[in-house]
Amino acid sequence: MSSLGLQRGCRIWPRRLQFAVPLYRGQPPFSAAQSRCLSTHHEPSIERTRNIGIIAHIDAGKTTTTERMLYYSGFTRRLGDVDEGSTVTDFLPAERARGITIQSAAVTLAWPPFSSEVPQNITDLPKSHVPHTINLIDTPGHADFTFEVLRSLRILDGAVCILDGVAGVEAQTEKVWAQANNYSIPRIIFVNKLDRDGATFERTVKEIGTRLRGWPAVCQIPWWEGGKGRFTGIGDAINLCGLKWQEGGDGKDIETFSLQGLAEEDPGLREELLKARNALVEALCEFDEELLSTWLDCGDDALAVPAQAIRDSLRRCIIDGTGRLIPVFAGASFRNIGVQPLLDAVDDYLPNPTERPDPEISMGGQKASLSDLLSGNLDISATSGKKLAKKSNTPKALVAHIEACALAFKVVNDARRGVLVYVRVYSGSIKRGAPLWNTNLHLTEQAQRLLQMQASDAVEVSHIPSGQIGVIAGLKHARTGDTLISYPGVNPRIGPPAPLSTLQLRPIDVPAPVFFAAIEPHSLSEEKNVKEILQLLLREDSSLHVNVDEESGQVLLSGMGELHLEIARDRLVNDFKAKVTMGNIEISYRECVLSPTSPHRINFDREVAGKKGKAACEASIEPFDEFTSVTDQTVERDGNHITVQVLEANAQGSEEGYALPPELPLASIQAALINGAAAALARGPRRAFPSTPATLAVKSALDAAFASASIGLMEPVMNVVINCNEGTLGAIVHDLSSARGGHVLSLENDGNDDASSDVPAIDAKRIYAPPDPFASSGSADATGPGQQRQVTARVPLKEMVGYLKHLRSLTGGRGTFVMSVDKFERLSGPREKAV
């Protein structure tokens, strides 16, 4: 086929190439019920599995895009609407009432839908021509629900980042992008809402380079009708074709135009599409030597480079998750434009579970990869501290008995099914009825029922294989971040042989809460019920904390923000029917140690269960900073660093009679001491505020520090990013600096790069993007009254309570802001007295 024609591999709906005619008419191959039934009969292949998340700033169109994906895959038979409260993934009453996503929801779909029609030579076709199982998680965009995003990213293999084509790269987008960088998640970008007034694809693409610090590889360009009309479709720079969607339809009627067809239909789009192909190939050649070689073989002709070679190159460039190169796609989900090609991109470019790095594990203080353990290459005898004499207890023999290893990343209390634990299986297969050893809690629970979740619905399955995301119903104790091991014949009390009983996958980081509010039961008889409900709520959301004030006896619920606590209150009252009242939202302060203390020793000598018990513990505390040395025995808990040293029997300095019982594992002692220290550090000696995270000895050391006036008070200071127009910039800066005691760090034009980033800046002038037909007359460097500006500041959290209403009054309702915890800083004298 000519290099100017439609190249082989252009997406086909339903299964053959057509030009200037509708490609997909009528209903999908199967109804929703049939599709779900078929999915239970298709054992998902790990190579054809995609575990992806939808991430973005709030109101960028995540849930709307997810709804279209479900509709085109045949999972649903109607398009859900956020405004109507009829979406699949936003099923909580609070989500539908507010029109926002509050908790991440998992759903499994197949793209393309499973059918009896299978291509003959699938090796010569793009991956998107073969049905793939997509486990999709729709995440929240509000900053208060950052933990929902974090625990989803922890178990994902890829992500689709959605940008608002009008707003561009927003503050929360930068935050979730940085979080994805921390987990090295391969990503693609979908520029949404290009049908809206003010949509600017060109500016958004350049902001991707300057703000997200990755090179945007424009794979699709917008198709404006007549060059300056409505948004009607996309130009595909990979397959050199144009895709036009029927106006007002459900998105299934698509016309495909080759370059020859575009010469008649829209010559301007054809010319821009050729520029886009040249820019795409040139960009990939800078990152991928293999495509560079192909390009040279084609005589430096970007149009002659095969489409499949470009797909393979894009996949190689993003699979490491560094974000150095970012494929960019275009569409308008609400108008049903561009979602099917986006699903193709998920299949073609995002990795399957086997293409991701080996999961990191820790075991007995030793860190390694899970594959090293399972292959027998890890010396677990050194980890256990004991010689494995029996042949049945050799490292390979012990590891061979591990049937499955999984991470619990989410817990939900379902009104019909009870407590549901979402897991990602990293090795083996969890089978129905299998005993699961919880290596964090050191107990065994049985996997009574296994489910494949479809948002609020579920399909029961017999097992959850490696690489898949599933749900276990009936677990009474498992929490977010717990590692579960299926080990046949395990003793429910002592678990697998050491050190396998302590094996843990990389945990999920839980951000510290900064707001709290008092919870008051309506009666004394209601206290027990409220306590149980709070425990359920805390299992669901580990970023919530509950403390009891010793002086007042009040129950204090802590969270990430005002909306976070408001949602928690609604769930308590409306979902769990608790008879409680929540007080005003307050700020969570901390206490800090100002100087080191001498060691404090506590002797324990009493009868326990009829037997005499004797032990001793010594503790000392000191301030921690970035220069403090950290050893392998140091564990971080709630921002504190706890170092445990257990004296062995007959060690120098140990007293007679203090030898460790031989049957008591060293790891269990260390875990108990760490938990005891964390419990003692949970409350400071000065004002009973949460302090840096053992019990009697640590408390004694804290009391001594307080007696010597070595305890200070700390408050949370926030990083605040405010977006406003030029006309209101002065009022906002004055308010932050004078009225709220904040420090303005930078004033930028919206779209300028961030000089504080460690990643080299990308020159926006070198980035290819098609010109916007509706671009405003002012350039990006203009500073007129309507120009968008960004204010970055550090402000005490106390001054930011209720700030949104004040910002709206200053900006006429057009200002927005995002804030995150920077760090806790010691209060000055006057501010401390005020507190």
From TrEMBL:
Disordered as annotated region, ranges: 773-792
CDD domains per record: EF-G, EFG_III, EFG_mtEFG_C
Main localization category: mitochondrion
Entry's Gene Ontology cellular component terms: mitochondrial matrix
Matches recorded under PROSITE patterns: G_TR_1, G_TR_2
Residue ranges, compositional bias (Polar residues): 776-791
Superkingdom to which the source organism belongs: Eukaryota
Keyword annotations: GTP-binding, Mitochondrion, Nucleotide-binding, Protein biosynthesis
GO molecular function: GTP binding; GTPase activity
Start and end residues of each Tr-type G domain: 47-354
Pfam families noted in UniProt: EF-G_D2, EFG_C, EFG_III, GTP_EFTU
InterPro entries: EF-G-like_DII (IPR053905), EFG2 (IPR030851), EFG_II (IPR041095), EFG_III (IPR009022), EFG_III/V (IPR035647), EFG_V (IPR035649), EFG_V-like (IPR000640), G_TR_CS (IPR031157)
Protein's job: Mitochondrial GTPase that mediates the disassembly of ribosomes from messenger RNA at the termination of mitochondrial protein biosynthesis. Not involved in the GTP-dependent ribosomal translocation step during translation elongation.
HAMAP family: mEF_G_2
Family of this protein: Belongs to the TRAFAC class translation factor GTPase superfamily. Classic translation factor GTPase family. EF-G/EF-2 subfamily.
Protein known as: Ribosome-releasing factor 2, mitochondrial
